[in-house]
Amino acid sequence: MSPDFHEIWVYLSASPLAGLTLTLAAYQAGMWVFERFGRRPALNPVMIAVLLIAATLMVAGIDYRTYFDGAQFVHFLLGPATVALAVPLYRQFQQVRRSAVALLVALLTGSAASALSAVAIAWALGASERTMLSLAPKSVTSPIAMGVSEQIGGLPSLTAVFVILTGIIAASFGTWVLNLVRVTDWRARGFGMGVAAHGIGTARALQVNEVAGAFAGLGMGLNGLVTAILLPVLYRLFFT
Amino acid sequence: MLGTLTLLLSCQLAGELTARLLHLPVPGPVIGMVLLFVGLLVRGGVPEPLQETAGGILRHLSLLFVPAGVGVMAHLNRLEAEALPIAAALLGSTLIGVALTAWVMSVLSRRGPDAETGHGEDAS
Predict the structure, then answer these.
(1) Where are the membrane-spanning stretches (chain A) (predicted)?
(2) How far is CA A224 from each of CA A42, A107, B27, B92, B106, rounded to the nearest angstrom?
């Protein structure tokens, strides 16, 4: 390595610039592949971006923490983006008010079913307790899920990974499973995606239909509330 | 754009402060969302710049999950050791969650004459 190159390397690995640029470039590459091959849900842009970045970091020998120092600026925007969900929600408020009871029952059923089925399946197949506890809050948006995970004794960073994988699964197979159970109402389709698969499900629903997107945003927000309150209580009932 | 970003951050900040002061188990941004929603109700409409900025951020919502997703690197050992239970739990519970929530909601809400529906092609 020439001294110049070494200096540049030191600069790049210390500044947030590289991690930030890599994140945006990889996501755009993911979007390009997604658009280029007919917007197939299985070619989820998040998944492509994550794989590209992880591969780049491993080849370059950079650890996750160093990368995240730069990428945290993107990560930070999750907060304002969550706040911004109030806008599509407001635009659909009349519809929301009309179906309040259905929303509430569906929310509680879906929220409990997502968490309990995840833990039950993992338990039946012999997962460790740490893994099960990290799985429980995986349906809600990552800042909430990580907080709950910590509270009940899971590993917050592992939960963040489960959260992303859940979103990718819903974005990839959501259409299929919703058609399978013959739900045609955009409100219900969107709400299911939001409750079970937070922001990535919501992003997918927004791509498809504005009504579905608004209900997905609502589902994501409400399940965030419900999970943050109920899961610690359920944990105390089952595990202690 | 600048004003809207300030508004979104202020709502988030107010949400974080509320959560901490009242010891709520709910994350700050979610309370911020509720605050902005109430604000829009009171005002009775979405200002054009807010509509634009919110739309812009939400169009690229999935980008914001990428940095946390790369965290998969740090857990490769555990993921490998428990691959089957993890994969089955994620796949099963996610499909159950999406389907059950949507199904319960569609059964319980009688569809109004103006409800838009979608099936097949590119439905989410």
Answers:
(1) 12-34, 46-67, 73-90, 102-125, 158-178, 212-235
(2) 26, 11, 8, 20, 21
**Is the pLDDT score of B119 beyond 60?**
no
Could you give the dihedral angle defined by the CA atoms of residues A192, A195, A196 and A198, in that order, rounded to the nearest 10 degrees? 120
pLDDT digits (tens, 9 = 90+) for A120-169: 999 999 999 999 999 999 998 877 888 788 888 898 889 989 998 999 99
Q: d(Cα B117, Cα B29) in Å, to the nearest integer?
A: 31
A4-59 pLDDT, tens per residue? Answer: 777 877 777 777 888 899 999 999 999 999 889 887 777 888 889 999 999 999 99
Domain check: are B12 and B37 in the same one?
Answer: yes
Residue ranges covered by each domain of chain A: 3-76, 83-239
Q: How far apart are CA A55 and CA B123, in angstroms?
A: 32
**Tokens representing A210?**
């504005």
* pLDDT tens digit sequence for A93-134: 877 888 889 999 999 999 999 999 999 999 999 999 999 999
Chain B: residue nearest A100 by CA? B109
Domain check: are B46 and B88 in the same one?
no
**Contact between B101 and A106 using a beta-carbon 8 Å cutoff:** yes
Are B57 and B90 part of one and the same domain? no
Q: Does B83 touch chain A (CB under 8 A)?
A: no
Residues B40, B1 within the same domain: yes
Q: How many domains does chain B have?
A: 2
Least confident of A194-198, A232-236, B12-16, B104-108: A232-236
Kindly state whether residues B48 and B2 are assigned to the same domain.
yes
Residues 122-161 of A with CB under 8 A from B: 122, 124-128, 131, 135, 138-139, 142-144, 147, 151, 155, 157-158, 160-161
Residue range(s) defining the domain that contains residue B83: 75-109
- Tell me how far apart the alpha carbons of residues A43 and A172 are, in angstroms, rounded to a whole number: 8
Within-domain flag for B114: no
Are B56 and B81 in the same domain? Answer: no
Contact of A122 with B83, CB cutoff 8 Å: no
Helix (H, G, I), strand (E, B) or coil at A43: coil
